[in-house]
Design brief:
By secondary structure, the protein is an alpha+beta fold. The chain has helices at about 295-305, 320-330, 345-350, 355-370, 390-405, 450-460, 490-505, 550-565, and strands at about 10-15, 20-25, 45, 65-80, 85, 85-90, 95-100, 105-125, 145, 150-155, 160-170, 175-185, 195-200, 200-210, 215-220, 225, 240-245, 250-255, 260-265, 265-270, 270-275, 275-280, 310-315, 335, 375-385, 410-415, 430-435, 470, 510-515, 520-525, 535.
């Protein structure tokens, strides 16, 4: 796994990143031609990457194949951190399985591989149909490829395949009752083994576990009381190291204690009122697409902290785990969502059983693999879909119920671009609004009237106790375009609009924060109202060069932060 820390010390983990054989299958004949057994290719690509960096494949949507040989002996666990979007996997010509969804981890366990070279083959498809998530009509490029790392792990004894951390803080937040949910796999013959859990090096739990070879088991530990808890927050993001151990295996994670809640139309982190000073950020870079290198992620966060931001929205999909590790370590709050977004989801598509099921499975994966990250305070169900329709109502109720039952200490929301006729506000803890006054429609000054007008609407609906976060607003600017005239596409126009909006939201008593759209320019599918097929709403260029709006946001956020300190 590509994390900020080693998840395993005992377990042998081998990265399969690097050179892979690659072939384009635009006619989708690879299965018929048995590419699963290997294929002739004149091209080598580096994994992780997106195939859209190839000059011939910039806008390609369809099937491509990947092949990698590696040496292994024993019980293998193949781990894929992200493949866009549909994927079939074969090992040595044997079919392992299928996965849908480009942004969460999936894995396959293959027991008793004989010593030798083994052939891993993937069929990857990023094309669209009526049941696709996302749909084609989104304002970001739907890249293709093995976009995140691949590894093979050697499982021995009683192996630990997953661990989830739950806790309840006392009223004074100085102690906690905690428990863990842990999944095991029997990699060898049945044998009793001690399973133990340590926190910052001190053993806090143990029991005996035994599994038959090939079997799986889930245990939920007894509740454990911890005193003198150190809290995780934006100023002091204290992280505990938790280690799960059996005789032959281990799993290591970083966890934090904190509460997030809404009351009196305010947002409270660990009982303290907090205003969200945020940005929307795509995992996108002109040279790397969605396979953003770790060094660039780290620099992005340096820039974001330079603006006094304390919050990021992962627009519009789960971001890579190592990025979440960075947020945990820095104390930056995160909003994680899945790519059910934009108007491409018609009312009919929103009612599709396949779409509903796929969306729920994506939410389940996101919760499973991101659950332990204290930086996540929002689960986002969907974004800017037709929430004025009955099918969106049914979808929202389904997903909201799932998150409230399984999402842990997080708030649930969705972004609405239909504030006046949205019928789904009952299925959120915080109302999130996206509007484009001064850009797609209306005058820039219309923003000043928005809080009072929307307050009337939320009171009519009986949701006056729900706070609002402004999760999507802004204007595009072509980097380097300046003029004395107050016209769109100039850096001056964008900067002025953000000054107006941020101050307006900050002054409104029921608005708890803002997420500027967006951090930097990103590649877009849309050719209408776009320069160079880019979403130019970034306050930085795609290469992270600051526009005038960067300083406007920085000045506002610095002033807002100073008011509360």
């Amino acid at each position: 796994m590509n994390r900020l820390f080693d998840e395993h010390i005992k377990r042998q983990v081998t990265s399969l990143d690097g050179a892979w054989k690659f072939v384009v299958d635009s006619d989708n004949v690879g299965e018929e031609k048995n590419f699963k057994d290997g294929f002739v290719s004149s091209k080598t690509v580096i994994v992780p990457s997106v195939w859209n960096n190839d000059l011939d494949l910039i806008k390609y949507e369809g099937v491509c194949w990947y092949e990698k040989d590696f040496y292994f002996e024993g019980n293998a666990r193949l781990v894929f951190e992200g493949v866009m979007t549909e994927c079939k996997v074969w090992l040595d010509g044997e079919y392992l399985g299928y996965h849908y969804g480009g942004f969460c981890q999936f894995d396959f366990i293959v027991p008793d591989l004989k010593a030798g070279v083994h052939k891993l083959v993937l069929k990857v498809d990023n094309s669209f149909n009526e049941d696709s998530i996302p749909q084609k009509d989104v304002d970001w490029l739907h890249f293709g490829g093995i976009t995140r790392s691949v590894s093979v792990e050697k499982l021995n004894g009683t192996a630990i395949t997953y661990a989830k951390f739950d806790y309840t803080l006392s009223k004074d937040r100085k102690s906690a009752e905690i428990f863990f949910t842990v999944d095991f796999y029997g990699a060898d013959k049945k044998k009793d083994t001690e399973f133990s859990i340590s926190l910052n090096g001190e053993k806090i739990y143990s029991e005996t576990v035994a599994l038959r070879k090939g079997s799986i088991k889930t245990i939920v530990t007894d509740k454990i009381t911890l005193n003198n808890i150190k809290l995780w927050d934006t100023k002091n993001p204290y992280l505990y190291t938790v280690a799960f151990n059996t005789e032959n295996d281990d799993l290591i994670d970083k966890i934090g204690f904190r509460t997030i809640e809404v009351k009196n139309c305010k947002l409270y982190l660990n009982g303290k009122n907090i205003e969200l000073r945020g940005v929307n950020r795509h995992e996108d870079h002109p040279e790397f697409g969605m396979s953003v290198p770790t060094q660039i992620m780290d620099r992005d966060l340096d820039i974001i902290e330079e603006m006094d931001c304390n919050a990021i929205r992962g627009t519009h999909y789960p971001n890579s785990r190592i990025f979440l590790d960075m947020l945990d370590a820095r104390g930056i709050l995160f909003w994680s969502e899945i790519p059910i977004c934009s108007s491409g989801f018609s009312e009919t598509i929103l009612g599709s059983k396949t779409v509903l099921k796929r969306g729920l499975e994506m939410h389940k994966e996101m919760v499973k693999y991101y659950y332990n990250h204290p930086s996540i305070i929002f689960w986002g169900m969907h974004s800017e879909i037709r929430t004025n329709t009955n099918n969106a109502y049914i979808m929202s109720k389904l997903y909201y119920t799932y998150f409230k039952e399984n999402g842990g200490n997080r708030l649930v929301t969705f972004t609405s671009d239909k504030p006046e006729n949205d019928i789904c506000y009952e299925f959120c803890d915080v109302i999130s609004i996206s509007q484009s006054f001064g850009w797609d429609y209306g005058a820039r000054e219309a923003w000043k009237e928005f809080p009072d007008k929307f307050d009337v609407r939320r009171r009519e609906l009986g949701f006056e106790k729900k706070p609002v976060v402004m999760s999507g607003f802004g204007a595009a600017a072509a980097y380097g375009y300046h003029t004395f005239d107050d016209v769109k596409w100039t850096e001056e126009y964008q900067a002025k609009l953000l000054e107006i909006t941020l101050q307006t939201f900050h002054d409104c008593p029921y608005i708890i924060g803002s997420y500027v759209s967006q951090f930097c320019d990103s590649v877009s599918n849309k050719d209408i109202n776009r320069i160079g097929t880019l979403n130019n709403k970034g306050i930085l260029s795609g290469y992270r060069e600051p526009k005038l709006a960067f300083n406007s946001v920085k000045e506002k956020y610095f002033a807002f932060k100073k008011e509360v300190e």
